[in-house]
Amino acid sequence: MPDNKNANNKSNILRKAIFWTFLSVVFFALVYYLQLFSILSPNIRILEGEHHYVNFKFPFVYVRGDDNGEIIALNGKPTPPQHSRINFPLSVEGVKQGQANLEFALFGRIPLRYVTINILPEINMVPGGHSIGIKIHSDGVSVVGFYHFPSGGVSSSPARNAGIKLGDSILAVEGEKVKNVKHTAELLQKAARKGSFTITIRRKDRVQDVSITPQHSDLDQEYRIGAYIRDTTAGVGTLSFYHPESLLYGALGHVIVDTDTRKPVDMSSGEIVKANIVHINPAQRGQPGEKTGVFLNQNDLSGSIDKNTPFGIFGHLEKVQGFVSPFQDPIPVALASQVKNGPAQLLTVLEGDTIRCFDMEIERVMPQKSPADKGLIIRITDRDLLKATGGIVQGMSGSPIIQDGKLVGVVTHVFVNDPRRGYGIFMEWMIHTADSTP
To answer: CA 23 to CA 25: how far, in whole Å?
Structure first.
């Protein structure tokens, strides 16, 4: 009996040892996985000929690749086709353009992380800073407000009663496509005299027909629907970059919204022209400032607006000439992963059409692995710029940001309660959007 009892005790101890060893290995692997998950992105972008550093130390981690060392190198050596032990910190070098895949595994057995690495060509763009006049024509006409009028002693707004909403685009009246505000008003008047009629609207991505019953206004003896409409949006902004050969350009760094509805303008066409800055209303705490510019229909700068996106407006320049800028030639565009906290410069116009360079600070870089806005928190430090504008003002959106000789982003938004500070967007996302299909 004692021998059986001792055997059972040894067996229990062995089982417990195996159990706790298994739990330790699982816990160890889980900790590794969580650390790799937080530190190592599943998608890494590197410029050809440059390095990406993974700055941590993990023992017992093995790696293998599928590119035979043709696309990337790890710590100066070709990627191993079979699991091999690697030394950290790890340097990943972009050897040539293409895509490679890596698998990280604990002890070469337990998969921890799969990583796709894209080696991209260096892109060079001419930094902007030019003040531009922006004119956008909407697709159809936009409903920007409602009004009530007396009709038979009752206040009425037939458009609102019919379910029309701010930001809706009127595309047609009784099946006839509208051209502009004047044409739409004529169609509405004609249809209203016959009683109820149908209009075609777009709400976001949905097109639908809405029936409206106009009311006779006691004020002017005309039939009305009680809606304000607009077909054109205009403003002043800043050119961010352009390609000297294709003349592809980007500006603003954010979507253009209707000033009344605060919704993105559903554009049919648009153009940019040269603008001269004639006055600046400085920003104050709680009160955004503004650049005032006059549109100049000259041949110095003009172009089409092909896209109005969350990352800015994009199109092609017809001409850009006669400007003096601190950056006349193309410079490299930085990837989002290359931008860092620290000093930088921005280009913008304070008077006339003279582009000047001003000091600023990138206070915080938001880690972003895919296109998104507000990737940078920035602060204006230049005394001349602060004296003239109080910080970031309307019309400065799109001003390019330069760091270490690279085009890293643009100014997009201001902190209303601290106009010296604001947001910026990574230039990589603007270039990606400019180069993608509409």
So the answer is: 5
